[in-house]
Amino acid sequence: RKVAITGWPVSHSRSPMIHGYWLKSLGVEGVYDRQAVAPEDADLFYRDFASSGLVGCNVTVPHKETALRACETLDDAARAIGAVNTLWLDGAGRLHGANTDAAGFLGSLDQSAPGWDEKPGAAVVLGAGGAARAIVWGLLQRGFKPVHIVNRTFEKAEKLASYFGSDSIAQKWEDLGDLLGKADILVNTTSLGMEGQPALDIDLSPLPDTAVVMDAVYVPLETGLLKQARARGNRTVDGLGMLLHQAVPGFEKWFGVRPDVTPELRALVVADLEKKS
Ligand code: SKM
Questions:
Q1: Do the interacting molecules here have an ipTM over 0.85?
Q2: Of the four, 62, 204, 205, 260, which is 20 to 30 A from 35 by CA?
Q3: What are the extents of the domains in the chain?
Q4: Which residue among 22, 58, 100, 253 has the greatest number of ligand 1 atoms within 8 angstroms of its CB, and so is best to mutate?
């Protein structure tokens, strides 16, 4: 059985390393590859997935919406978020789609910050792109209310907030300080703070010290945001956990065994990230 990470580009993806580790450590026969799909080929590739030689795949940027349109069935998360990242073919050659990014985000917080959602209050999400869509939905599912969406281009925040209804609210970047004062969780979904990108320059001093701070960025593993949060005593969760946890349901679907996100797997990917940076 052959599976792959599909997207454009896919050279940076750690999915082959993650699934390769599980295949080997669980003694499962199978292959997990990389398959770059150029934007002009994407529509046909997913519509004609049965002829790709793959039994399933992960989908990453920028094909998550294109792939969704090729699916015959979708799970609730994919339908709510409007994007897929996990596809599989059934015996009749029909393509099914799921979105496991929200589950990955939630699973990572459950593992790294136990009890984080016991009294779900206000959440602040920075950014309004694809990752924000999955994360806002995940937070709403766990009962966080309101979920403030803060984006430098306010119109994008408005669009995302109206997509999810009245429990999510678009906010201006200038109002971040006031919002942080009442936040139970802060999540960065922008690329700010990522290696090679501008820093995420925010002042966390209004944030309650009981708030959890999560950064979806995982290169570097400890971003400036997380460093600042840790120094002032907030619980922090890095972005690698989300990547590891979103992979779990796909592996189970394709290979029939539910894998664990073990310290050994995490250490393997961390070593690779450190080698390359
Ligand atoms: O949704 C995930 C995708 O399944 C895999 C991935 C990767 O390999 O970098 C990133 C995210 O888009």
A1: yes
A2: 260
A3: 2-99+241-276, 103-238
A4: 58
pLDDT band at 277 (very low <50, low <70, confident <90, very high): low
Q: What does the pLDDT look like over 149-163, one tens digit per residue?
A: 999 999 999 999 999
Architecture in CATH for domain 2-99+241-276? 3-Layer(aba) Sandwich (3.40)
**Cα dihedral 96→99→103→105 (10° resolution):** 150
Write out residues with Cβ below 6 Å of ligand 1. Answer: 5, 13, 15, 58, 60, 85, 101, 246
123: CB partners within 8 A, 6+ apart: 139, 144, 146, 147, 148, 183, 184, 185, 186, 187
Write out the two tokens for 33: 């590859």
Centroid of ligand 1 to alpha carbon of 272 (angstroms): 16
Q: For residue range 87-129, what is the model confidence (pLDDT) as tens digits?
A: 999 999 999 999 999 999 999 999 999 999 999 999 999 999 9
Would 2-99+241-276 and 103-238 be classified into the same CATH topology?
A: yes
Burial of 19 (0-12, 13-18, 19+ CB in 10 A): buried
